[in-house]
Design a protein that fits this description.
CATH class: Alpha Beta
Number of helices: 8
Strand order of the largest sheet: 2-3-1-4-7
Distance between the termini: 37 Å
CATH architecture: 2-Layer Sandwich
Length: 222
């Protein structure tokens, strides 16, 4: 059990912190898509398509990770951290796709086994977010995305918590930028940096993505 771990253990420290991670995508011009639907059946088709795009991105990342962990493909390895379906939940709320990354569940179930798995966890979130965005664009959906962090409670049709607010404010609230991109919020970056400071051999995956040109800086934000 997590509570039986020593106080200095990274899994216990993370489990006792309230943060989980949420990625939100605001589908722009959704009103036009919805108004083009003539029946409840058409609306269900639209919702299934948006959910399918998101789950396809997750499946592609998982599949690529499995091949790479077997020595086939690129340098990235997700190794044994491919719990992903258990600790990842996809929701759709009107024009917003929500992906919950439940680190507490991953720790509780023993899915994260060694501290370096947290680097893998962050890289997985970055890759999924990037691919969901690309697939939405390829299917003709303009979107604005954000990766947030904070408290989180969710079920099949409910989501509450500051993690959702953190991400949602960046795509729909006063904090949003006039650009099509996926933003890493300051709260999410601080969460990664807390782990980086505690475990210096783990590097911030967002920083790696910035260096590779996937994230860009705009008005002092990422």
């Amino acid at each position: 059990m997590v509570r039986d771990l020593p106080e200095w253990n990274i899994f216990r420290r993370l489990y006792e912190r309230p943060e989980d991670i949420v990625v939100c995508f605001d589908i722009l011009r959704t009103r036009q898509h919805i108004l083009s639907c003539r029946s409840a059946g058409d609306l269900r088709k639209l919702s299934r398509k948006l959910i399918a795009i998101t789950k396809q991105a997750i499946k592609v990342v998982q599949s690529a990770s499995t091949r790479e962990s077997r020595g086939v493909g690129g340098a990235m390895e997700y190794r044994d951290v491919l719990y992903l379906n258990e600790a990842t939940r996809v929701l759709l709320m009107q024009d917003t796709i929500i992906i919950c990354f439940d680190v507490h569940k991953a720790i509780r179930k023993g899915i994260l086994k060694i501290d370096i798995d947290f680097l893998v966890w962050f890289q997985y979130i970055s890759h999924v977010s990037h691919l969901v965005y690309d697939l939405l664009l390829s299917e003709g959906f303009l979107a604005r995305g954000a990766i947030g962090c904070g408290t989180l409670s969710y079920s099949r049709n409910l989501i509450l918590g500051s993690a959702f607010i953190d991400a949602y404010d960046r795509i729909e609230g006063d904090e949003r930028l006039p650009m099509l991109a996926v933003e890493a919020t300051p709260t999410y970056l601080r969460y990664q940096n807390w782990i980086n400071c505690y475990l210096p051999h783990i590097h911030c995956s967002v920083a790696e993505f910035i260096n590779s040109g996937i994230y860009i800086e705009h008005k002092r934000r990422v």
